[in-house]
Every structure is written in structure tokens, then in C-alpha cells.
Amino acid sequence: MTVQLQISESPIKRLSPEAYQKIDRELAKYPPDQKQSAVMSALRIAQVEHGMVTPELEEEIADYLGMAPMAVHEVSTFYNMYNLRPMGRFKLTVCTNLPCALRSSNQAAEYLKHQLGIGFGETTADGVFTLQEGECFGACGDAPVVLVNDHRMCSWLSNERIDALLSELREQANEGEA
Ligand code: FES
Q: How far is the CA of 37 from the centre of ligand 1 (A)?
């Protein structure tokens, strides 16, 4: 008589236990039957850990939150703060919406392109900077504004301030600081 062993395969987890703890903290903010409300936070946590949101991470999040993977993908593709491809060490997002455009954001964007030698959607050859356009950050009065890695807002960007910002970030990249 042959005995067949059934080995249940547990799916490979790409998110760390620490990432799951952070997602759990977000989940605690919502009723148990509204787990999907934490999807944006979960995507952010995944991106911070992996540098980008991959289809595998979307699936893992979908599974954890009880959502369809496509529903998670719809969120990650709707908001441009989610990186769906590898980015440079520093992602510089320039707001080019009308209120900022009226306050010289296009000139700041052109100066950034010139100084970095790349266009929107591109990454410098050394992998330090990715430049992209963004939608309103709610800081229209401070234009031109650039968001560094979706987190740090840099305002009133004259050419001099852009040069200072790029020098500072290059220095950080050289020092290997986070
Ligand atoms: S339009 Fe640029 S921050 Fe609002």
C-alpha cells in the first residue's frame, strides 16, 4: 500500500515580519471587515522595504487584506507615488500642475533636467536620481516644489536652491546614507 504524503506549500513571503507588523498597525485603525482600507498604507510599507511595488507584492498584499490582486493593482497604478519600476536612489517629483506652472515650476523642471542630464521618467546613469512629474502636493503657494522620495518637500526652488539640493543628495549618495 502506498501512502501519499501531502506537503502543503506555503507561498513565499516577500514582505518581512517587520513589514507585516507595520501593516497590522494600520489594520488596527479600521473595522475588521474593512481591511482593504489599509491598502494604500500596505503598498507604501511594501515600497519602502523593496524600493518598488511589484506584481508579487501586490498579490501578497491582496491576499493579506482579502482583496482581489487587480483591486490592489488599480490603487498602485492610480497614484503616482507608487513606484512600479526601479527608481534611482532619490526620486525627484516636480509638481507641474497649473498653479505651480504659474509660479515657474516649468523653469525649475527644465533646470533640473539640464543639471541632471535626463528627462522626466528617466534615471541618471549613476542610479542616483530619477526625475518625474507629479500632481498637486497641496503646497501650491510654495512653488516651485519638488518632493524627494515622496516624503521630503523642497519649496521655492530657485536655480541656486536646486543646485544646493542636488549637492546635498549627491553627498548623501556618496556617503551611502539612507
Ligand atoms: S499645483 Fe503644485 S503643489 Fe499644488
A: 26
